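wait is this the right file?? whatever heres the structure
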């Protein structure tokens, strides 16, 4: 169950990061409020996952999901550039997360 909590926490991290961008520096109420809800949910699920997963593994995968997810949202929804270097960097983050999962012992 911890891995499910961690995955959903990571997706909520992508959501709150995206909503933070959409809040335009906290000047738009709706995205700001939704961001706060997503942030609380993300931290809560991360805390639940950390009950049984190692700190370093859980935190690195949580931030990795957020980083790669925000990267993909930036490309798909915000017109951010797609370059070989950016794709390779995101792939390396993903490889690191997979490595941590496979070697975590959980």
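ok assuming it is, sequence goes like this
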């Amino acid at each position: 169950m911890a891995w499910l909590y961690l995955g959903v926490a990571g997706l909520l991290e992508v959501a709150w990061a995206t909503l933070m961008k959409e809040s335009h520096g906290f000047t738009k109420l709706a995205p700001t409020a939704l961001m706060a809800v997503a942030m609380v949910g993300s931290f809560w699920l991360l805390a639940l996952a950390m009950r049984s997963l190692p700190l370093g593994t859980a935190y690195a995968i949580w931030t990795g999901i957020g980083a790669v997810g925000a990267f993909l949202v930036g490309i798909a929804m915000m017109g951010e550039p797609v370059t070989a270097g950016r794709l390779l960097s995101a792939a390396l983050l993903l490889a690191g997360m997979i490595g941590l999962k496979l070697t975590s012992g959980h």
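The CA atoms of residues 19 and 35 lie 5 Å apart. so i think its the right one actually
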